[in-house]
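It is worth pausing here to work through a concrete case rather than discussing structure prediction in the abstract. The textbook approach is simple: state the sequence, then state the predicted structure, then interpret. We follow exactly that order.
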Amino acid sequence: MSHDHGSPATGHNHGARSSRTRLALALGITAAVLVAEVIGAIITGSLALLVDAAHMLTDAGGLTIALLAATLAGRPATKNRTWGFARSEVLGATAQAAVLLAVGIFVVVEAVQRLFNPPEIESELLLVFGVIGLLGNVASIVILASERGKNLNMRAAFLEVINDALGSVAVIVAAIVITLTGFQFADAIAAILIGALIVPRAVLLLRDSTSVLLESTPKGVDLDAVRGHILNLDHVTGVHDLHVSQIATGLPVLTAHVVVEDSCFYDGHTAQMLDALQHCVAEHFAVQIEHSTFQLEPAAHAAHEHPTHD
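Step two, the predicted structure:
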């Protein structure tokens, strides 16, 4: 016996269209800034700017992945994909996080090596290209800000442009320091700072996205509290095979076998029991679970089931 509020794809279509538009704009800006920074890195010889350009390249790829994921997420469910492509936003976020982590590690290693042999940097031009990068990043941030909390995919995209903006700030600071003091190590130090900003955020995003892929219990759901509340309902004598996972952001699902008094199957009380169970998980807790499936069982049914778990 199940309960839901319509096709998951239907509820996400409007949000997916909005996300696609914003992602496309951010991708266009990122691509333009990427070209400018590559040219600037070649002219100035700056590692920090080259690293930021490499970061922009991964961001362009990440935004492309995010745009593709947002497009797929808007497709309706089919008989072969009963949840549609809702989980594509999680796959997109995982791919972006993995790329960001690899770039961050590379940045730190390369920058440490440059500390021992810093090249001469054209600081004035470095400052110009750093400002160009920052302006582009700020524009992307403004475009994506209102959508950043909608799902992991948009969170990943927003995180990437935030990291880019911080990287551009580091490039600008390095350029100013080199111009005023001649301290060539500032470029490598800025590159290390960019890497230090990238790695922990990428790790956190990777943790959250893989948690969804591994079907872990969603954040904010206390499984013991859910079990306890179900057991407190009238006529319920046991709960087993209780699972709560997450298809995509904002789409938690629950399944459970609920043992009820035998009399419920003879007096027509099972319909009321199902209503009570669905209301319990959809309304009682901070994380509302609108997609729930319950199997109501008499106590004797346990002898006919495969081994269960709590």
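Step three, interpretation. Residues 1-14 have pLDDT under 50 and may be disordered. The radius of gyration is 26 Å.
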